[in-house]
Design a protein that fits this description.
With about 290 residues, the protein is mainly beta. It has two domains: about 120 residues, Chitinase A, domain 3, CATH 3.10.50; about 110 residues, Chitinase A, domain 3, CATH 3.10.50. About 5% of the residues lie in helices and about 35% in strands. It contains two helices and 14 strands, in the order E-E-E-E-H-E-E-E-E-E-E-E-E-H-E-E. Strands 1, 2, 3, 4, 5 and 8 form a six-stranded antiparallel sheet that branches. Strands 9, 10, 11, 12, 13 and 14 form a six-stranded antiparallel sheet that branches. A two-stranded antiparallel sheet has the order 6-7.
Length: about 290
């Protein structure tokens, strides 16, 4: 799967036709700036007793900056926890919400209280093609807007970690299983058809009612879909994802639980560890 399950920015281009002579439509090609690789530097190891795992409640301090491609580091400051009372509290590792992005979850997992980290987030781990925050003035500080497809740099400090309530773990299934959340009414996904899908993927966590652990990839905020040729030879997606698509119809939504041997098996594939079962929410938007 070329772009799935890896944090790779999606390149979206729409080219306008050029008429002969003057007066033709303008070129509307979307130019996506060069993106840095994701990186995380632990600038101070915390001495707190608890490690931040998916589902834990964390209190952090942060400062966010536009990525400067010339210096390969911090550009203009665009946000700070100082704007909201000095700290920010949320549940780590369970998805993007508000200011929290996929990249926040990736960078903060494993931290202890007192620790600090600096993370460079390419656009698909930040706010992708949306203008996340307009230019604004807060407490006398003026921040520029975050433009579409901007890469960001964050300084994080872990203030505290409160562990999630632990419940008995349920082992992942032995075969790919799915539950229809919405039954579609359009064309059906069958072998040889190309399904256009929106998806989010989580590591399987048997201690959670919905089995969703750390979010590792999603295209739900992108303007593009993932196009999958069902039963292609060779497959272009993992076997469990391919199996979970079959029988869906346009407009349908499904949660698919995939055992590790139908995903990336004993090898894993960064950021997915070896022997990891996966959970996907899938929506079919078109069938060709």
């Amino acid at each position: 799967m070329k772009s799935m399950f890896q944090f790779i920015a999606a390149a979206v281009c729409t080219a306008a036709l050029t008429a002969c002579g003057g007066g033709g439509p303008k070129d509307t090609t979307v130019v996506i700036p060069p993106q840095p690789d994701y990186s995380m530097t632990e600038t101070k190891v915390g001495d707190g007793a608890l490690v931040a795992d998916a589902g834990d409640t964390v209190v952090i301090k942060y400062n966010g900056y536009l990525y400067n491609s010339t210096t390969k580091g911090k550009g203009d400051k665009v946000m700070s926890s100082a704007d909201s009372g000095g700290t920010y509290t949320f549940t780590v590792g369970v998805g993007a919400s508000g200011f929290v992005t996929v990249g926040w979850n990736q960078a903060l997992l494993g931290m202890r209280a007192g620790g600090t980290r600096t993370a460079i987030l390419p656009t698909n781990l930040a706010y992708n093609n949306t203008t996340a925050i307009d230019a604004r003035t807060v407490n006398g500080v003026t921040y520029p807007a975050i433009p579409a497809y901007a890469a960001l740099v964050y300084d994080f400090e872990m203030v505290s970690v409160v562990k999630a309530v632990i419940i008995p773990s349920v082992d992942p299934p032995k075969t790919t299983q799915w539950t229809d959340l919405t039954v579609g009414t359009g064309a059906e996904v069958t072998a040889g058809k190309t399904a256009s899908v929106k998806y989010s993927g989580w590591l399987y966590d048997g201690t959670r009612d919905n089995r969703k652990g750390a979010l590792f990839d999603s295209n739900t905020t992108s303007t593009t879909t993932l196009d999958v040729v069902v039963d292609a030879n060779p497959l272009t997606v993992i076997a469990g994802f391919n199996a979970g698509l079959k029988g869906m119809k346009v407009g349908g939504k499904r949660t698919v639980v995939i055992p590790s041997d139908q995903a990336y098996g004993t090898a894993g594939k960064s950021p997915i560890p070896p022997n990891a079962a996966l959970v996907f929410d899938i929506e079919v938007t078109a069938v060709k």
